[in-house]
Design goal:
The chain has eight helices and 25 strands. It is α+β, with helices and mostly antiparallel strands.
Length: about 525
């Protein structure tokens, strides 16, 4: 009896998120088409806890977010498909790309993300080790010994210190058996750059560690075909200047997954390549009614064990209210027939796979005051939207707000903004194809000031002043909207201006759901404000 109780207590202490060795299964694989038949395969790795660093100096690490990890090291054909060149000393389409610095990996990721809207990045060092161990606590994911039959390494026994052999060769990715998550070549083949700057580990338990804020050398993991066996241990750390390129250096991609990705994640589309069939389960597909919008919000809140309306206290009775917006699919931009449209409003299908919160109102002057201790608005009013704020000012506000509330506030993406604004409608405005002064504050020079927030009727999601009052900065850089189907679009990697949406009290037109404006991120104006978003 005592013994059984002891086991039960151990299990309770380990907790629900701990990934035990015997529970590890190969993760779901998502395949992305990079064009011309080049595929990128990512494996879903669950959130969990593990001991990082190996026996004796291990410390408890909790990873709270599931993530995708490259099934293989990035190959030369993938590099070529994205960058149009191949820096590798020894060529082979299915060999890992080599002779790439950490800086080079960032260039690749930037281009890959621009091509796929993908959110790819390097893994953090903790993610790398967690994915490598796949539930094991031994020196290698195959046990305490590693032989040349297990991985592409130099030498054949643990701790044998071979000289670095240039005679050894890289091999095609996936030439050895995978670990329990279904990941290949975590041990050996090429060293893999991680996101982190290198530093000694902190003592004690940590959650989602990302390494120090700055440093001079970046982390590499996993050893390589021409390095000692012991370099291929799950916990072995190596580090070097981020500009260094070497024959034995490559990398593997990672990508943060949403909790719901553990259920379904659509394949990322490439314009002009394979036809996309996103997961439609649970998506709120436009057009939809107000009743359906509200029902979806309620259902989602219930499944997330959250409220449809999220309230934060900014002190001194100043509240910040956010509304939960479900995942969905809609036509972004305007049809060619829409009056007053511009050609930058290319109509195309957008799927948003992650639910998010959006400000019920524009950010007010009292909220700005509570966070920043000042009020830049030309025309004052506590409950009026803050104005005269640039996109960069918004980022400062968000940074301070997140410090104050331990939150993850941000600006909405332009697609999130428009999906929320439309709230299931396909008309020029969320209340139809026409606008009158009863619907919103807009309309020109005669109106000297924005209205107090919430002075007009909300849309079907319960959001106020999406049309008019003040222009709202979005996260994205501006560019003519793309053709085709996109998923969770984030706009171009860069351009000259950031997006503003919704028009303002000062403008006669430009108040339509799809109206777009852009200004340099440093611009301030008496009708520029913003609205907050957050993913969790
Ligand atoms: Ca490797
Ligand atoms: Ca507005």
């Amino acid at each position: 009896m005592k013994r059984i109780l002891g086991i039960a207590i151990v299990l309770v202490l380990l907790g629900a998120v701990t990934v035990l060795a015997q529970e590890v299964k190969p993760g779901k694989v998502v395949v992305i088409d990079l064009g011309k038949g080049v595929r990128l395969e990512m494996v879903l790795v669950p959130a969990g806890e593990f001991k990082m660093g190996g026996p004796g100096k291990d410390y408890e690490v909790t990873l709270t977010k599931p993530f995708y990890m490259g099934k293989y090291e990035v190959t030369q054909e993938q590099w070529e498909a994205v960058m149009g060149n191949n820096p590798s000393r020894e060529k082979g389409r299915m060999f890992p790309v080599t002779d790439v610095s950490w800086n080079d990996s960032q260039e690749f990721i930037k281009k890959l993300n621009a091509k796929t809207n993908g959110g790819y990045r390097l893994p953090s060092e903790a993610e790398w080790e967690y994915a490598c161990r796949a539930g094991t606590t031994t020196a290698y994911s195959f046990g305490d010994n590693l032989t040349k039959g297990d991985a592409n390494i130099s030498g054949d026994s643990i701790n044998k210190v071979d000289s670095i052999k240039e005679a050894d060769r890289i091999k095609e990715v996936g030439s050895y058996k995978p670990n329990a998550f279904g990941l290949y070549d975590m041990h050996g083949n090429v060293w893999e750059w991680c996101e982190d700057w290198y530093a000694d580990y902190q003592a004690g338990a940590v959650t989602d560690p990302k390494g120090p804020a700055t440093g001079s050398v970046r982390v590499l993991r996993g050893g390589s075909f021409n390095y000692y066996v012991s370099n291929a241990r799950s916990s072995n750390r190596y580090f070097i200047t981020p500009s260094v390129r070497y024959y034995g250096f490559g990398f593997r991609l990672a990508k943060t997954a949403d909790i719901k990705d553990t259920v379904a994640e659509p394949t990322v589309p490439i314009p002009g390549s394979t036809e996309l069939t996103p997961a439609t389960k649970g998506l709120l597909v436009a057009p939809f009614s107000e009743v359906k919008a509200k029902e979806a919000q309620k259902q989602l809140a219930k499944s997330l064990q959250k409220e449809v309306e999220d309230k934060a206290d900014l002190g001194k009775d100043v509240k910040l209210e956010m509304v939960l917006i479900p995942t969905g699919k809609f036509m972004m931009g305007s049809p060619a027939s829409e009056k007053g449209r511009s050609k930058v409003e290319t109509q195309h299908e957008v799927t948003l796979t992650k639910p998010y919160y959006l400000g019920k109102y524009e950010v007010t002057q009292e909220q700005w005051q509570a966070v920043m201790g000042n009020n830049p608005s030309k025309i004052k009013g506590k409950k009026s939207p803050v104005t005269n704020v640039s996109w960069i000012d918004c980022q400062e506000f968000i940074k301070k707000l997140n410090e104050k509330t331990n939150g993850e506030y941000r600006l909405p993406t332009e697609a999130e903004w428009e999906f929320a604004c439309r709230a299931g409608t396909t008309t020029a405005y969320s209340f139809g194809d026409n606008i009158t002064p009863k619907d919103a504050i807009y309309g020109g020079l005669a109106i000297g000031a924005p209205a107090e927030i919430g002075s007009y009727k909300p849309n079907a999601f319960g959001l106020y002043d999406m049309h008019g009052n003040v222009w709202e900065w979005c996260e994205d850089w501006f560019k003519e909207l793309p053709q085709g189907t996109t998923i969770d679009p984030k706009g171009p990697a860069t351009s000259g201006g950031r997006v503003l949406r919704g028009g303002s009290f000062y403008w006669e037109s430009s108040v339509r759901s799809s109206s777009r404006a852009d200004f340099p991120p440093t611009s301030r104006n008496f009708d520029f404000g913003f609205r907050l978003a957050k993913t969790k």
